[in-house]
Amino acid sequence: MVNSDRFFCNRECRYFPCHKGIDEEEFNCLFCYCPLYFLGDDCGGDYVIKNGVKSCINCSRPHIASNFDEINRILRENLK
Fold this sequence. Notes:
By secondary structure, the chain is largely without helices or strands. It has one helix at about 70-80; strands at about 50, 55. Strands 1-2 form a two-stranded antiparallel sheet.
């Protein structure tokens, strides 16, 4: 499988698709839980605050396959 280390789609997940607006053929489940969550307001995603808690329900950033390299770059820069 080409790019199998960069892409995984779990159509068997009971939440799939957990975000709207992404073509199911391009939906990347590799980052099921956002690896940028720890960055808080600086994550660059489309999050909202619900009951005092950051909710990423409107954010599709980690689920777009072409964002893999960008997310890894951000992680490398912030996890030194």
